[in-house]
Amino acid sequence: MATYCYSREGEPKVVEAEFPMGAARPFIVKDGKTFMRDIGAEHRNIIDLPSLDGEIRTMSMGCHPDQAAEFTANAHKHGCKNTHFDPRTGEGVWNSKGAKKKYCRTFGIRDFDGGLTGP
Question: 109: burial class by Cβ within 10 Å (0-12, 13-18, 19+)?
Fold first, then answer.
């Protein structure tokens, strides 16, 4: 069984449902509401898609969680104020593609795995 995500426009909640691999339905009805399949929610952390709150998160440009504060401070010291590193996961977090691009240029990084948010 595979887990598939469904969402409803105007609601931040994502509903998960299990179906056999490749047999996902295009929509489900739960509590009398219709939820459409949300492929973006299913793959949020595989390619660096913006999260539901508008942030861009990436593991490929992250650090060890114990180093998150150090990496955040270094980014801010070099003028990348819209960059921080999640202390739980070590993921790099930006509030826009422009902020991620500035960070990459400042530190000479080329994010080849950037997916739709690559600089």
Answer: middle
> Token pair 């795995």 is at which residue?
113
d(CA 45, CA 42): 8
Q: How many Å apart are CA 111 and CA 57, to the nearest integer? A: 13
**Identity of the residue numbered 79:** G
Residue 68's nearest CA partner among 91, 45, 95, 51 is 91
The closest of 58, 91, 30 to 17, measured between CA atoms, is: 30
**In sequence order, which residues have a C-beta less than 8 Å from that of residue 1 and are 6 or more positions away?**
18, 19, 20, 21
Task: Return the closest-CA partner of residue 7 out of 32, 34, 44, 25.
Answer: 34
User: 48, 115 in Cβ contact below 8 A?
Assistant: yes
15-68 pLDDT, tens digit each: 889 999 888 899 999 989 999 998 877 766 544 444 555 678 888 888 999 999
Of 7-16, 50-59, 95-104, minimum mean pLDDT range: 50-59
